[in-house]
Amino acid sequence: MRAIMYSFRQVLREAKSDLMLFVVCFVPFLAGSVFRFGIPVLEKIVTAYFQREQIIFPYYGLIDGFLAVLSSMMFCFVSAMIVLEERDSGIEKYMGVTPVGKRGYFISHFIIPAGIGYFVSMLAVILFHLSEINPIKVVVGCILAAMCGLLCGLIIVALAGNKVEGMAISKLSGMTMFAIIVPYVLKGNLQYICGFIPSFWLGRFLIYEDFVSAIAGIAVSLLWIYFSVRICRR
Question: Which of 10, 100, 199, 229 qualifies as a FRET site for 193, CA 20 to 30 Å off?
């Protein structure tokens, strides 16, 4: 455990030394501030222009879900960039034969950042939420969001050969979060065409608050994570 924590401290040092990665860690709070104070103002402007009572308001829960996923994705993105940098310098292979080991390296560079992303997601949602929330919805929803973030980080490492490719792939992997919109816009069985994307089930959970969607989301996420880890090992 001591070796794992030492490896994680190295992640923190590298994130602190890179200005871009350091700033990314604060994106959840910047985005949360914009959502919390900007969206209600925008709602008033839009409703006044179109002379309707509600336009954005029914999607406040969706915006909170975006904030939760974004918070987790940012921390996993930082970790993925550090892993790619360590891969370029050969440190990644070296860590496999140290007391940290491959499993410890995975925990320190992915699991712990995803866990931090989970707590940051909860904090961001509690501070900047627009919709009505309850403890169970926040806890379970942020678990699903953290798994989505972890998956995005693994996809970046699995498919990118260097940091430049990682930046490009991060944009593509980040697009998976937009499946959260599907349950809000499609009400029939057609929506299940996106059932293989974890964020889809997060969207369903935010709407219906049913544990079937939560369990399905966790199962789909674990399946994606399993195959992503296998690719990363290669």
Answer: 229
Task: For the chain, 234 residues long, give each residue's pLDDT as a single digit of tens.
Answer: 777 787 788 888 888 888 888 888 899 999 999 999 999 999 999 998 888 888 888 899 999 999 999 999 999 999 989 888 888 776 666 666 667 777 888 888 889 999 999 999 999 999 999 988 888 889 999 999 999 999 999 998 888 877 888 888 888 887 888 899 999 988 888 899 999 999 999 999 999 888 899 999 999 999 999 988 888 776
Tokens of 77: 């993105």
Which pairs with CB-CB distance under 8 Å and at least 24 residues apart come from 81-84? 81/18, 81/21, 81/156, 81/163, 81/166, 81/167, 82/11, 82/14, 82/15, 82/21, 82/109, 83/109, 83/157, 84/156, 84/157, 84/160, 84/162, 84/163, 84/166
Residue 118, pLDDT score: 94
Helix, strand, coil in percent for the chain, rounding step 5: 85, 0, 15
For the packed helices 27-50 and 112-128, what is the interaxial angle rounded to 10 degrees? 40
What is the pTM assigned to this prediction?
Answer: 0.90
Sign (positive or negative) of CA dihedral 11, 101, 160, 171: negative
Please name which of 170, 166, 178 lies closest in space to residue 152, comparing C-alpha atoms.
170
CA 161, CA 165: separation in Å to the nearest integer? 6
* Cα–Cα separations (whole angstroms), residue 121 to 36, 38, 146: 14, 19, 8
Tell me which residue of 202, 221, 228 sits closest to 213, measured CA to CA.
Answer: 202
pLDDT at 18: 82
